[in-house]
Automatic annotation (TrEMBL), chains A, B, C:
It comes from the Eukaryota. This is Uncharacterized protein LOC101499091. It comes from Cicer arietinum. Gene3D superfamilies: YjbQ-like. InterPro entries: UPF0047_YjbQ-like, YjbQ-like_sf.
């Protein structure tokens, strides 16, 4: 692989729509408009099998870093294959319970299940499948120092194993 | 959280494979090679329940901004929990219809459904589940000012509620 | 669309948690801390229908570029609508086989299937559905020149068609 390469003193045009406060022109050298990266690994405490709202737990871990970004993206990456991250309703706990009910109906478990991979327990193979159904990563826009989700959106950790364990999430923030 | 910090005048090496036009070396200070961010919220019109091809609607809203990026990523974030964004076939409407058929078969609805969350109507809890199955966000590579999707790929908005409503998408562009 | 715009000489604060080696302050002009983009399209060889571990194939194609990033994100984008990319268990081939079994049970195929889109063969419409279930794109954090996945995580290509074909993946790297 031969790569062409190019260097430059970076100018950082910041283009946003009206909902953003206009950045003052005489502020154009400000640190706040320079591209920034932040990355950290956070640990979520053990949760019982099921879907759990973790927005505030994650926000608490990253809000200080987040506040430095006018515009950007937050990437959350769960380093596990038997749990998942998804964005869904943030208000009624029944929605989380019903989603867990759905996952258990759709993915066979126990003696009726056709799985070859059973050494780690009857809940392990179903957990892997659920992890790929919902995914292990999320990317959320950052706007004015906050995660720019909809009114009813929240971040869920879905624990698919019977035995609760702490789960690691690599958070990467990128923006200006 | 104690963060280490570092500042520098940014050099922006641009490394791409052969399919890109080689960027001229004497052009290395050009604005086009500096990191840029653009973010806007667009509104998709109300669609009936089902899967809909929205590539051209979204492209129209962002094509002017997009044209300024040689290389980058476009992030689309649907701010709702009862609809979803996915990438799939862009030609035969039957594929969208069949996908809607699948979703309705896989997620029980109505009197036979086991849901506790029913206050917002029989289509609401199924809509939440379908939203997590397909997801509410997409990231698409940008190459030479365009979304770099495959020949047969298109962006779908999947409306999972019976009552059509306008849907908001936060689009974040990042690249050089 | 009226966009406000702003330019600046970029400062690049690099904020990371303790697990990163502290970047020396007198090294602050180093290329390694400047924002970089790299993008290339790689071809995966034809795989038979089913789930396949492709971490090492992808790593081999991008490891040289990857090694230049201290912190960033790697985006993988499959340019097809009848295959998918997912992250799951990297050790026991039974997990991949069982996941393929699950997908075939959940998505009807053949004479009992309700699909209208059948012209491209009985495996085509199921392939499209599976592609949206698992998705065609992944974003993985980069830390110290490597993909920062968990111990048991690997990248899977899931081929949903009967006839194996080569599959293109657009890889975009962004970071410092």
């Amino acid at each position: 692989m031969q790569l062409s390469s190019l260097s430059s003193v970076a100018k950082v045009p910041f283009s946003v729509k009206a909902q953003f406060p206009t950045v003052k022109k005489n502020n154009s050298m400000a640190e706040s408009t320079a591209p920034k990266w932040a990355q950290k690994t956070i640990s979520l405490p053990p949760y019982r099998r099921g879907c759990h709202l973790v927005t505030s737990k994650i926000a608490k871990e990253i809000e200080q870093d987040l506040s430095g970004f006018k515009c950007g993206l937050a990437h959350l990456f769960l380093q596990h294959t038997s749990a998942s991250l998804t964005i869904n309703e943030n208000y009624d706990t029944d929605v989380r319970d019903d989603t867990e009910t759905f996952l258990n109906r759709i993915v066979p478990e126990g003696s009726s299940a056709p799985w070859k991979h059973t050494l780690e327990g009857p809940d392990d193979m179903p957990a892997h499948i659920k992890s790929s159904m919902f995914g292990c990563a999320l990317t959320v826009p950052i706007t004015n120092g906050k995660l720019n989700m909809g009114t009813w959106q929240g971040i869920w950790l879905c624990e698919h194993r019977d035995h609760p364990t702490s789960r690691r999430v690599v958070v990467t923030l990128n923006g200006i």
